[in-house]
Specification:
- The protein is an alpha/beta fold.
- Helix content is about 35%, strand content about 20%.
- It has nine helices and eleven strands.
- Helix 7 (about 230-240) links the parallel strand 10 (about 220-225) and strand 11 (about 245).
- Helix 8 (about 250-265) packs across helix 9 (about 270-285).
- The longest helix has 17 residues, at about 270-285.
- Bound molecules: NADP nicotinamide-adenine-dinucleotide phosphate.
- NADP nicotinamide-adenine-dinucleotide phosphate binds next to helix 4, helix 5 and helix 8.
């Protein structure tokens, strides 16, 4: 058995994180590559974020994934030490603690979403996005970088969709960002991709924000949620014979990109991580 102190510690930081599948994916990768490391769950309330981040070196934590509700708030504690992409997106989902104990913030959500789009052979030009939080920012950045021409954004909080639009508009002059104040305003009739980047659909009692009549033929429906594997939105897409995907592919690829940052020059074992994710999800669904 290796000495406890020689084991590097990683983990997912969020509130809540009980149902995160990231530990299964990363621990399988560590074990497959015989890396002396362990990936844990760190459930930290928003008010305790600053103190938790200050304690990383003492706790011997080498890296983190960051999830709801910390992706945007964490930026203020990283000062100048974050990549320009994370800064441009306005959200961090991966932290690397360097040898001096400094925290460096990255965004691998956008890379994960981009890789999944490639796998799905999607090159959407006209897109509608529900939600304007940390994940939606990464999605919009990825889509605009990949040549989207217009992105309509709806968030329950209009201020957030307007602020997302303002954040990206100047950097992507070839893409028009339009903040709308209702789901109907997304004008799905003319779109080739609908993305749900809101948490609506995670709970069984959640409504489906889209009615059957709103979904045109030919639109691809992507839900960032992967648990449940088929949200009401995806069930609707299926009933209508549309192509659709959940966010499991994005989760896998963002996790692989985080792994590559932490373990450089080692590369994430994608198949091992994918199998571990699928197994953990089946277990989670069974309860
Ligand atoms: P977030 O920062 O809290 O953003 C979610 C946004 O959706 C918030 O602005 C929220 O507004 C808005 N919203 C809530 N209810 C809404 C409604 N009825 N209509 C329109 N907008 C609504 O969360 P996030 O980190 O972006 O995550 C969003 C979802 O993506 C979560 O389900 C998360 O699990 C998933 N996700 C998946 C992956 C993956 O790899 N597959 C990666 C990242 C995130 P309020 O804040 O006002 O409620």
């Amino acid at each position: 058995m290796p000495k406890k102190s020689s084991i590097r510690i990683f983990g997912v930081l969020g509130f809540p994180v009980k149902h995160s599948l990231s530990p299964a994916m990363h621990n399988a990768a560590f074990s497959h590559l015989k890396i002396k490391a362990s990936y844990k769950k760190f459930e930290v309330r928003p008010d305790d974020l600053r103190i938790f981040l200050k304690s990383l070196s003492v706790k011997k934590i080498s890296g983190l994934n960051v999830t709801i509700p910390h992706k945007e708030n964490i930026l203020r504690y990283l000062k100048g030490y974050k990549t320009s992409t994370a800064d441009a997106i306005g959200a961090v989902n991966t932290v690397l603690v360097d040898k001096e104990g400094r925290l460096k913030g990255y965004n691998t959500d956008y890379l994960g979403f981009s890789r999944h789009l490639v796998e799905l052979k999607l090159k959407p030009k006209k897109i509608a996005v529900i939600g304007a939080g940390g994940a939606a920012k990464a999605v919009c950045f990825s889509l605009a970088k990949k040549g989207a021409r217009e992105i309509f954004i709806y968030d329950i909080d209009k201020y957030k969709s307007i602020s997302l639009m303002q954040r990206f508009q100047d950097g992507f002059p070839g893409c028009k960002f339009i903040a709308v104040d209702s789901v109907g305003g997304l004008l799905l009739g003319g779109k080739d991709l609908l993305v749900n980047a809101s948490p609506v659909g995670m709970k069984p009692q959640d409504p489906c924000l889209i009615t059957p009549a709103m979904l045109p033929q030919g639109i691809f429906v992507y839900d960032l949620i992967y648990n449940p594997a088929e949200t009401k939105l995806l069930q609707l897409a299926k009933q209508k014979g549309l192509r659709y995907a959940n966010g499991l592919g994005m989760l896998l690829y963002q996790g692989a990109e985080s792994f590559n940052l932490w373990m450089k020059p080692k590369k994430a074992p994608l198949v091992v991580m994918s199998v571990a994710l699928a197994k953990a999800l089946r277990k989670e669904i069974k309860g």
